[in-house]
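Report of the visiting student (M.T.), summer placement. My assignment was to run the structure pipeline on a short list of targets and document each run. The first record concerns Oligopeptide transport ATP-binding protein OppF.
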Amino acid sequence: MTVTDHRGTGTRTAPPAPLLAARDVVQEFPVRAAGGVKGGVVHAVSNVSLEVYPGETLGVVGETGSGKSTLARSLIQAPRPQSGEIEFQGVDLMRLRRRELVRARRSLQMVYQDPFGSLNPRWRVAELVAEPLVGYREGTASTRARRVDELLDMVGLDPSLYGQRRPHELSGGQCQRVAIARAIALDPALLICDEAVSSLDVLIQAQVLNLFERLRSELGLSYLFIAHDLALVKQVSDRVAVMHLGQLAELGPATALYRAPRHPYTAALLDSIPGLDPATGRVRRPKAPPGEPPSPLDPPSGCRYRTRCPRAQQRCAEEEPVLLELAPGHRAACHYPLDPPGSTDDEGTRT
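After the run finished, the structure tokens were exported:
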């Protein structure tokens, strides 16, 4: 049997098995009432399902508080979600005991936002990069030293110049390269990059992104790339997942999603990016998404975006939308999705 390619390119090939498959993941945190703040439960991640395939980069975008980083931590079981399934390389991580989970994590690594905060300030660069090798008892001291030199070369740092430095002697970009060298030390299959370049200036961002792409090509890595910068995510991703208030609003091929978003929230996020108006050729003034995001302590009934959505109708308050496929590989959770280019149907008036 043949099916449409999982990246939505239209190629009729059977897709590979996903490297990572999350199904109906729920992560909630109880909050105690204190100081006039109402207690309750923070619905951080609500029934999120997605896949990452071998060799691809899946971007995850959304506003602050949308649940992107919580989803990333949930995928590596830190902390373990309340419910759902998370299969990595065919193994359900939710069922693993601590020791088994530690073994599984060697192939599933993270690169965090703050390069300084993720590195022990007392350790030298060579020690930092060697730490995962020591932790998993890889090789002898001499083979680990050679591996550290190889890893530093791989991320563009001369071992003879940087191996004995400490984090405070490095720039932000150099610290992030050290963090990347640590992350790839055990030959992982998947890197989860949680805002990994957001604290870097634009020039250094571009260099680190080029490094990620080169490592993907040379090592066969897959990425789950989390960021709030939509333009940046478009640059690096094969597919993009859009999160709003703990849920997936849209998921599809990057090119199609940016060209023709089907969820009003995605369209609002894209309107916030400066760019050229194709009709006039002039610079388009960015517009912030309408309204304020609701509290995850008390999300709206039905569609969680309805209180900010210009297309909302009564059905949106009464019925929670599900993620439906609207085009090959392109899904959106909306009762009244936006029309694709060239369509004459007014989907905003359907009942």
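The radius of gyration is 22 Å. DSSP finds eleven helices and 14 strands in the chain. I thank the supervising group for their guidance throughout the placement.
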